Request: fold
Amino acid sequence: MTGQDFFDVLSISDENGNVDMIQALMGNDCLGTYFNNGIAKLYFYSGLKNDLEARLQEINSNHSFQWKWEKQNKENWHLTWQDNFQPVIIEGKLAVIPHWQDDSPEDIVIKIKPGMAFGTGHHETTWLILSQMMKHIKPGMSALDLGTGSGILSIAAIKLGALKVDAVENDPDCETNFKENLNLNHMDNNIHYYHRDVLTWNNLDYDLILVNINRNVIEKLIPQLKATRGTILLSGLLVTDHKTIKSLCQNHHLQVKEKIIKEEWVCLIVE
Reply:
């Protein structure tokens, strides 16, 4: 099995609430996380383990926790998700369900096929931004989804009434899963996928901009986002990031209008 055939998976007990902090400190390198019976599994591309291990040792000097590494074959990793994927219900109106489930009684239903892209609605950051999309999307809006991953936010935007969505993603492993999820949800010409680094995307002429990425990328995006005429939903941030991001927004003539908190995570509404 070559390095391209598997993920390195970091398993951590979340009994002390360390996982969110560790995931945030790992930055872009962490592809995604899922929780099962109090154990968090953080996924990374192979080849990064030595550097990540050094970071873990440094973090552990201030926060005591146990961890172990394992390998997960890319071809069958989705079976792990299938064993643990439970529907996600947001505000009693929007449901994210696995593709093998027939339907759900909620008003809006999104089907997701676990693939190479992480984004199923289970993490607080995705739950937060989906809940705010339900409040801010109006019929006929245009939206930009930066760091689209599985496409869950793009699909939700259309189902909530947006007229068109441009979805931007730099990870080449995401495109196949993104298109599978569009097909599952019968999305045709309303969503356009672009394989680009989000930091190089210059067109910001949208009614709504969706950003569910980690703090490091958000900090680099904010100077560019000041050019938009629309509302910005920022997720992927810890509550402890709020003051720093708010100050950075103010420095670039953007105002944080509202903050919504779930567990240790915060979603910011910016204009």
